[in-house]
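Re: that chain you flagged

S.,

Sorry for the slow reply, it's been a week of failed gels. I finally had a moment to sit down with the sequence you sent. For the record, here it is as I used it:
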Amino acid sequence: MTMRAWIVERPGLVEGNPLRWVELPIPQPAADEVLIRVIACGVCRTDLHVTEGDLPVHKAQVVPGHEIVGEVVAAGSAVTGPAEGSLVGAAWLRRTCGQCRYCLGGKENLCPRSEYTGWDADGGYAEYVCAPAGFCYELPPSDPADLAPLLCAGIIGYRALQRAAVPEGGRLGLYGFGGSAHLCAQVAIAEGARVHVLTRGGPAQQLALRLGASSAADAYASPPESLDSAIIFAPVGDLVPVAMRALDRGGTCAVAGIHLTDIPRLEYQTELFYEKQLRSVTSNTRADGRAFLAAASRHQLRPTTHVYPFDQAPAALRDLKAGRFDGAAVLRIGW
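Prediction finished late last night. Pasting the structure tokens below so you have them in one place:
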């Protein structure tokens, strides 16, 4: 039995069509894995980094995609749940060793032997995918297009929000406003923050205002008030000193992306002094994922999505790179 899938034939610019449409054998789950019939898969900026080679190759000709919504159709011999027929999500963090000091200390996102969906192993740009059962999230019945972006854009945005240490009622700046930021903003606003969005493009700025942001302006503009916290979602190192200058004394800036262009030299007095902090964000723990999905339900998050047919995955990545849509893109695969 075979399935349709996209593979990264050779990493390169998406304008050069590095993805190839292929027929592959349907994978068989290992003892601790489930086989998932993919219904939808979100299109994440990390997929773009894998496809274009910004991230080093971990698996040759990998199937990208890690915002996977699907139905469990088979399970390995050691799996006790989720049951066949369950609606589940498979996300970026695929597996950890479970034995190192990071895993044992509640910081499995820092595990040196961690593996990632759509990078170390085949992901969701396919009709079927295998995933470790212990790293899947059981999902409520809902529109697959609304669920898919929650599984990375939402989770990593939530992790970044924690790393940014927004005080109660605080002033938060978001630099870049794509799939992750537009979900992070909804959580932050629901929890009482004043959010200022700094991003390129009128549609993204308009979406920010519709979602309740206090202001929206160009990425290099100054927010209307100093910030307690900032999160950089755009993979642009030039924005780091911009965000650091916008912080109030004692403020914290978190960089949410897995890839960032080089950061310019920081000027100590204006960009680091007064106990400002600059933090990175490294993947997420499963506890982060569960906490975010609970928050998404509690706050009734509504992703803004643009659905592409499965055979249009390259176009979705090109549009993501060019900033042609607001919110998030989702591939329609099994519905």
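What I noticed first: The chain has ten helices and 17 strands.

Talk soon,
D.
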